[in-house]
Each structure stands twice: as structure tokens, then as C-alpha cells.
Amino acid sequence: MLREAIDELEFLRRLGDGTLPLDVFRTYIEQDFLYLTGYAKALSLVAAHAPGPAEAGFWAGSAAEAATVEATLHQNLLTSGRLPASDAEPQHSQACLGYISYLTAVAATEPYAVSAAAVLPCFWIYADVGRRLAASARDVLAADPSHPYAQWVTTYDAEAFHAAVATARELVDAAAEAATEAQREAMVEAFTIASRYELMFWDTALNKQEWPAS
Questions:
Q1: How far is Cα of residue 180 from the mean position of the Cα atoms in its chain?
Q2: May I ask which residue range the UniProt record assigns to the signal sequence (predicted)?
């Protein structure tokens, strides 16, 4: 049900078919930029608790990718002039702050297996959704090569990213094999909560939830 609800989000449908308003897309990119900073910290904590050098190297490398390469792509898009200008300093949405706070807390306090399960949805769901979005975006580009964000969406289908997703899934599966029954139950719970945050993160880019007035 949760996975189906993600696929049915209006935000994702309109992102793929090119009809998402540009101001909404800018909001999404701003929030994703803020998210990547927190996600990189969570991945670094997972790496610090990893059981071996191979696992530590993968999670640390993923943290570096999120903090530098991906974040730079987002920042370049925000300053490219292709999206509506904004002078306001981006502030974490409720979903964004809740998501990265949850991941950081789990990565800092829970066993490696549980923290690895918590960070997996951002890899796995993003890749699965991204493949379909990229296919739709290619149709948009064929009709309008200058579309302001369809080219960015097609990067969701990059082979290097999907290879990283496959490695992340393998590492989490291996962690589950070595975990206790109680830890495996905690892994399922962490994965489920993070998946809920994935849905909320995308949805609130289009359907904003305002913070209470200060």
C-alpha cells in the first residue's frame, strides 16, 4: 500500500510528464539540497558503525557523493536561471527536517543493521521511481528539448546510480543475515518509517505544510 501510494503521488506524476509548476520544482530542489546535507551525515554515521572495510567504504563513498556531486548538481540548477528566482533563504520543511532527523538519530544510536535499513529507501525507492520518471521525461524532451527540468529528471536512470542501489541492497541483506531476530524486526520498522518519509517529502513539495507562526 505504501509503495503504491508513492507511485500515485500527483507530484511524481507531474514531475514525469513535465507539467509540474516551476515554482514547485524549485521548492523540491531546495528541499532536496537541504536533505542531502543531512543524509550525507547519516551515511557517514552508518559507515562509522560498519562491520568491515568494504561496507564502510561504500557508505562513506555514498556520503561523499551526496555531499559534493549531488549537492553541486542541485545548486547549479538553482542558480542556472532556468527556474524562477527566489531571494528567500530556504528553510527545512516539516517532512525534510523530520526525515533527516530520524535518519541521523537511527544512524547514531542503533546497530549497524538497523541504520543501514533506514538509509536504504532513499536509494531503492528513488531508483525504482526514477526509472519510470526518466522514461516519461524522455518523451517530454522529445517534444520540447528546452524543457526546464526534464533533462534533470532523465539522470534518475543513470547506470552508476542503479549499480550503487544494487550494492546498498546487497549490504542490507547481508546485515540482516548476520542480525538477531529483534534487530531484523527493527530493520523492517526503520525501513518502513523511512519509506513513509520518502512519500511525505515528495508530497509536501506540492502540498506544503506550513510551520506554525513564530
A1: 28
A2: none
